[in-house]
User: Which sequence fits this backbone?
């Protein structure tokens, strides 16, 4: 995945749109419906974009939706790429680099997660305050282009603090119950064991999922300002003594959709300039 690959993907997309997106949205499992509200939309299938991988999981569509949302010019990923699908970390994060090349400055990353914090409930939304990379690898391993970002990027504020305050404020104004916490990124595809969940709670995790961390690392490396929103679709393993299933994850995400959509739209409408 070189600069030439990014450029050819960017050119392909730019030839099909008349907007210049400044905000990127990565829509997680069961949350892709937000893209339906994008106005004057252009839809581009991942499989048509040069060098884009293709999504394989049910519940994930595989397309970019570009247009206007709440007065902002946006590019949304309806469906994302996961490390557990067999893609390399470079493939998983390629679309983030393409978004940056298109002009994106701020990135909303959303996901479905298991609640590790026992104060949480399925259907809750959580603003990501920080993350723990438990994937065992890192998308920045390999040669570094200093023009893109530093060799040893600072990760003390992956999720922009002004944005966190803004989303908290919007949730308050809109009467949307909201949690704020630490997202743990695992590789998947297995859900965790109860013992692993105990460990994740012990090390400071509030929610656990199988995405987001690689995207956030790359986005921060290239200078994007990040908002992270998780939908707690289930309590993590061992908490409720019931098995976890992808079907339940999708169902609960669908139930949380109304609040999710309202929160993101209102946040976009009044997003502070940084
Ligand atoms: N664990 C990991 N990933 C998830 C979960 C979970 O419990 N729920 C949704 N994505």
Assistant:
């Amino acid at each position: 995945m070189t600069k030439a690959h990014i450029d050819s993907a960017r050119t392909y997309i730019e030839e099909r749109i008349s907007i210049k997106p400044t905000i990127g949205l990565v829509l997680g499992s069961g949350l892709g419906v937000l893209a339906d509200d994008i106005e004057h939309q252009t839809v581009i299938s991942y499989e048509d974009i040069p060098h884009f991988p293709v999504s394989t999981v049910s519940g994930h569509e595989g397309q970019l939706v570009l247009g206007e949302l709440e007065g902002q010019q946006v590019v949304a990923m309806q469906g994302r790429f996961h490390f557990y699908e067999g893609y390399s970390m470079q493939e998983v994060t390629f679309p983030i680099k393409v978004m940056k090349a298109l002009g994106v400055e701020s990135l909303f990353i959303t996901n479905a997660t298991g609640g590790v914090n026992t104060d949480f409930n399925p259907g809750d939304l959580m603003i990501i305050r920080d993350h723990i990379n438990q994937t065992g690898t890192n998308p920045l391993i390999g040669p570094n282009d200093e023009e893109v970002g530093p060799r040893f990027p600072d990760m003390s504020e992956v999720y922009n603090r002004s944005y966190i305050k803004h989303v908290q404020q919007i949730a308050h104004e809109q009467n949307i119950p909201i949690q704020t916490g630490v997202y743990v990124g695992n590789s998947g595809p297995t859900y965790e064991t109860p013992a692993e969940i105990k460990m994740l709670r012990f090390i400071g995790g509030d929610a656990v999922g199988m995405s987001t961390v690689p995207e956030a690392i790359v986005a921060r490396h290239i200078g994007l300002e990040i908002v992270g929103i998780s939908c707690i679709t289930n309590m993590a393993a061992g908490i409720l003594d019931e098995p976890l299933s992808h079907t339940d994850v999708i169902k609960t995400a669908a139930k949380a959709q109304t609040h999710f959509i309202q929160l993101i739209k209102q946040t976009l409408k009044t997003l502070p300039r940084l």
